[in-house]
């Protein structure tokens, strides 16, 4: 089931967080470093923004807590995608891919004319 | 010289801006993320970090807070905010007494009622659901009385239309919050602040 968020444009930060969780569960700091790597350093999430987004995604049932660990006497909570989150990410990725495909196919003749 | 305890203390001061329920749920893991990202010898939160924490705390306190998986409450709360915005713009709620809508005190009180009830409904307070239904019920009675006893024909057409639209918006919100689908949200939703 797709949630209403799928009918509007997903924010890039949300897309990257869901993408970071697509390969498996991750904790907060892991998501931040993974998002930075996925976006080639362009998107650098801060803790406040990340946890606002995680709270909203949890409320929308797109992610859930996988497990909790105590590391160096600090809580480390791992998050994972729910089936709804997987569906939404797949739909958004397909939408972006379709748009990118159209853009590239239109750019080819234009760039050919320019050269 | 590095003092992690002092840095953690300063982070905790910033996290105090968040609602208590949010802190209870996330403070330890946010602290873990902040400390893991701190540089060697860092004594104070970076300005960007501090601004992000404060901005997020304000957003979490003010946002409607209703998940999209609860569409009836989600849209009801937005309609309540629409009512608050309409009152702020001076849209009359009674057709035959348009002048009263221009009084700043009248506008201020009804704006505050809609805004507070929208906020409280968004946080799942059942008293807010009941109070909003009662508030709209009283407004409906006043509206009907006004139409029946005051010459509606003497009211400008735009005030009749505006008050009618306003009434439909607030009634839609009531129908949504009193719907069967909204029940579980008010029974189980913990207050966020």
Structural write-up:
The complex is a heterodimer of chains A (115) and B (193). Residues 1-6 of chain A have low confidence and may be disordered. Chain A contains four helices and three strands; from the N terminus they run H-E-H-H-E-E-H. Chain A has a three-stranded antiparallel sheet. In chain A, helix 1 crosses helix 2 (28-38). With 115 residues, chain A is of the alpha+beta class. In chain B, helix 4 (71-88) runs antiparallel to helix 5, helix 4 packs antiparallel against helix 7 and helix 6 (126-149) packs antiparallel against helix 7. The longest helix of chain B has 24 residues, at 126-149. Classes of the chains: A alpha+beta (115), B mainly alpha (193). The A-B interface holds A 3-5, 27-29, 32, 46-52, 55-56, 59-61, 71, 74-77 and B 22, 26, 28-37, 48-49, 52-57, 59-60, 65, 67-69, 71.
Return the structural class of chain A.
Answer: alpha+beta
Major protein interface: A-B, 24 and 27 residues
Tell how many strands the DSSP assignment of chain B holds.
Answer: 0
What is the approximate shape of chain B? elongated
Helix content of chain A: 55-70%
Unreliable spans of chain B: none
**Tally of helical segments of chain A:** 4
Mean pLDDT of chain A: 87
The biggest sheet of chain B amounts to: none
SS strand fraction of chain A: 15-25%
- The end-to-end span of chain A amounts to 47 Å
Largest sheet of chain A: 3 strands, antiparallel
Radius of gyration of chain A over all CA atoms, rounded = 17 Å
- Numbering strands along the chain, what is their spatial order in the largest sheet of chain A? 1-3-2
Query: What would you call the shape of chain A?
Result: elongated
| Stretches with pLDDT under 50, minimum 5 residues of chain A | 1-6
Mean pLDDT of chain B: 83
List the helices and strands of chain B in order.
HHHHHHHH
